[in-house]
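Suppose you are handed a protein chain with no further information: no name, no annotation, nothing but its sequence. What can you learn? This example shows the usual starting point.
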Amino acid sequence: MPYKIVGDGIPQSLTGAPGDAARGRALVLARTTTCILCHSGPFPETRFQGDLAPDLSGAGNRWSVSQLRLRLVDAARFNPETIMPSYYRNDGLVRVGRNFAGKPILSAAEIEDIVASLATLRD
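A reasonable first move is to predict its three-dimensional structure. Written in structure tokens, the prediction is:
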């Protein structure tokens, strides 16, 4: 689904509806999305959280929903040297596995679920 960047975010939901924060939390903690491999946060049930990227505690205070969405869609937009993958953007990427070429890593619904979850993380 196409998206429109406005300023430093993507104001419109990728699905046209808000995500589910509980599903988003499960995705953040799943080893398949890799969030928790690099990030830490207020997730006492998860051992071995990452320390390569910003702590997600207070993410809902630091960034708007629009900004969170763009960070997940295309983190390189904020830092071209980031090691965080572009979870939804699929054009102009290098070293993409054959099975992922032309496909986003996460679906629009998964992005929205993670955004909903991160938005609840407030200090």
